[in-house]
């Protein structure tokens, strides 16, 4: 049976995934920090009309399109979404593989007749994706290389004997060759696949890397190319069925301990750690009751997790008894083994356990920590992030000290560029006895920041007779003095 492959390419996967969740009626793009600046990661068709392109800096893009709306890109979320699309595509065939970050390969050999043929199958795929708000380009051929060329450069179907005829007029990039090789060949007057095919193979092999001939042979079927199917994620779940119903807390915890031991052995073999666990109890009357435990760190320590489960298990109503207990790792993450000394291990474990205990009461996302941000603007030199999903980071090095407490600027009386000798702050009269400065900080002109609308700021560190050590700044453009921080 002749092999038949579908290449499914999503040219705007990231942008359309974001717009599916939060639609906007304006030019829209996703941005990602790369090469020391915010750059366009993906964009919608309306944003392409003014001339915007992927890789363009956000500042440059806004000069072309002032009304551009942007959101931060999430490449990891896009990869998860592509895997979901791969699972959805198994409705057409059992063999589906990923193609980079924005495409899929479907091996529909022997399954196209179930939908009336190849063309109806492609029509059905396109219609369903359109209803879901996703634009897709499809190509169908006898090899993955030829199907990829059609989906990216000339949508359609190439029959078993039409491969060269269909992909021959396409540019060399259709063979998935690096841009540098395509440019070198084009300088010699070789611009299409058919022109490359007509060249003597010996001269191509001498002049260019073997990748050129290999890509050509793969597209034409002279060399086989495998599709790696998407592997199913392992299911980490264990259960125990009891011969007699139980209801005492000690008995339930003993059963939970046994399940945790088996589950942690599975996680250890797979080098994984549990992030979220669900313990389900089936009562004699067939009613189920569950206890969920969200962890601040990936974990596979049975004793520690058992202690964290105790509070939730104690609140379970056993009714007439429990005859089955099931434990499942709902969320898992990679967790490699690492060497720790005893003191370091105890300190980190106790903090993570405390965050877990508090987080299961008030929500893990509500327990936050400060993280430094690489910005010279004081208000943007830090951010709040959930403590459970981040690690402590060292502060950015500063050539000059920063205050322990930072707050919104508070105006004080003062004239001239030198710190005032006497001023009132928060109802107290203060006298300056020492001053060090100025440290001039300029705003980021490429960002919109209303708090820096007055331009330059000259910062001073002052000491007062009353004991306060404050961080003051003066605005030269519209003269005025403000207090923004206090040193410890």
Overall morphology:
flat
User: Which structural class best describes the helix and strand composition?
Assistant: alpha+beta
Number of strands: 20
Number of domains: 3
The overall average pLDDT, rounded, is 89
Main beta sheet, described? 6 strands, antiparallel
Descriptive overview:
The chain is an alpha+beta fold. It has three domains: 5-153, MutS, DNA mismatch repair protein, domain I (3-Layer(aba) Sandwich), CATH 3.40.1170.60; 237-361, Dna Ligase, domain 1; 369-488, no CATH class. The chain has helices at 13-21, 45-48, 58-64, 75-89, 118-131, 144-153, 163-167, 179-187, 193-197, 201-207, 210-220, 249-269, 302-314, 342-362; strands spanning 5-9, 28-34, 37-43, 69-72, 96-99, 103-107, 137-141, 156-157, 237-246, 272-283, 288-299, 322-334, 368-372, 382-386, 405-412, 422-425, 428-441, 457-464, 469-474, 481-486. It has a six-stranded antiparallel beta sheet with strand order 15-20-19-18-17-16, with no helix packed on it. A five-stranded mixed beta sheet has the order 5-6-1-7-8. Strand 2 (28-34) and strand 3 (37-43) form a beta hairpin. The longest helix has 21 residues, at 249-269.
